Amino acid sequence: MNKMTKKQLLPIGFYDLLFDEAQKSHENINLALATFFGAGYRLIKTPLVEFEDNFSAEEVKNSFRATDVISGKNLIFRNDITLQISRLLATRLSQEKFPLKLCYVGDVLRAKSEELYADRQQTQVGVEIIGCDEEKSNFEIIKILLAALKKLQVKNLLIEFSLPDFLGIFLSEIAAKNKDELREAVMKKNISLIKKLAGKNADLITKIALSNDNLSSIVKEISSKEITAELKKAQKISEFLKKNFKEIEVRFDLFGDHESSYHHEISFNVFCGDFSYPIARGGRYKINKGTVKIAAVGATIYMNHLRKIK
Q1: Would you give the DSSP letter of residue 229?
Q2: What does the buried/exposed string (b/e) look like for 167-180 if buried means 16 or more CB atoms within 10 Å of the residue's CB?
Q3: Which pairs with CB-CB distance under 8 Å and at least 24 residues apart come from 166-172?
Q4: How far is the C-alpha of 91 from the C-alpha of 85, rounded, in Å?
Q5: Ramachandran region, residue 217 (left: φ > 0; alpha: ψ -120 to 50; beta: rest)
């Protein structure tokens, strides 16, 4: 009996859902999708497996791999659904008009997980607006995401925003020496090393790195128009949320979002209560349509994490 039990064990990070838990997960997915459908987003379903050469090396670095017995080509099991949309834009969606509003649901597989729970099979439910340079698309994605979380009865939310381009712009504007070393220190919030490397800018960098909510005081200390323009992106998001979602706490990690390989301009993580990992995340990015890069913004809900808090 023990031998049979061992043979039937699942790999670390994979799981069964049974009965009430499986039903609840199914209902939550349908509730989120219904919210997206009601706002005019159209559903797509992409395959779990794709050819590896559809993606860059960076995009597939945490993927499970296999070889196609028919073509002999290398395959990857998707680790993110958003990345698959690029292929659709160049093929079946090539004649669609922008802005294109899409939603999706499906499992993704990660070769490794840094999280305590180590889920390597994760269910994503998300929305995307493709072909949207306007600032209002940021607000629209955040609004529809929060509407879906409200429908799922998720409370005690905190949204933490980052400016993925900000650190590079900031270091260039202040003409920082030892730029790579200082970048690493800032990313790790190593205050003692920042003070050692940043000279006269050390106090300002430390203040930005540690600031959670008081952007106005930081803006007053900045003379660079480019740095100020970046900070105002975060300010506008903050004002939008405080006006429309007063019950949600807003924080900033302005130098953050180094987990993402493709977000730029603005990104965000949504947390719930004391749970350590984001239940949703999103932001702006560029997506390829053939040789052309198209502006896009999107958000994903991690259904696995919702199961652990509800």
Answers
A1: H
A2: beebbebbebeeee
A3: 166/227, 166/230, 166/231, 166/254, 166/255, 167/255, 169/226, 169/227, 169/230, 170/205, 170/208, 170/227, 170/230, 170/255
A4: 10
A5: alpha
Q: What is the CA radius of gyration of the chain?
A: 21
Cα 24 to chain center, whole Å?
A: 24
What are the structural domain ranges in the chain? Answer: 9-155
Whole-number Å distance between alpha carbons of 166 and 34: 36
Could you please state the CATH topology (level 3) that the domain comprising 9-155 is classified under. BirA Bifunctional Protein; domain 2 (3.30.930)
CA distance 62 to 108: 11
Tell how strand 74-77 and strand 49-51 pair up: antiparallel
Q: Are 304 and 123 in contact (CB under 8 A)?
A: yes
pLDDT surpassing 90 at residue 216: no
Q: What is the pLDDT of residues 162-210, one digit of tens each?
A: 999 999 999 999 988 889 999 999 988 899 999 999 999 999 999 898 8
Tokens 């064990």 belong to residue: 9
- Point out the least confidently predicted range of 153-157, 175-179, 282-286: 175-179
pTM of the model: 0.92
pLDDT-derived band at 2 (thresholds 50, 70, 90) equals low
User: In this structure, what token pair is assigned to residue 6?
Assistant: 């061992």
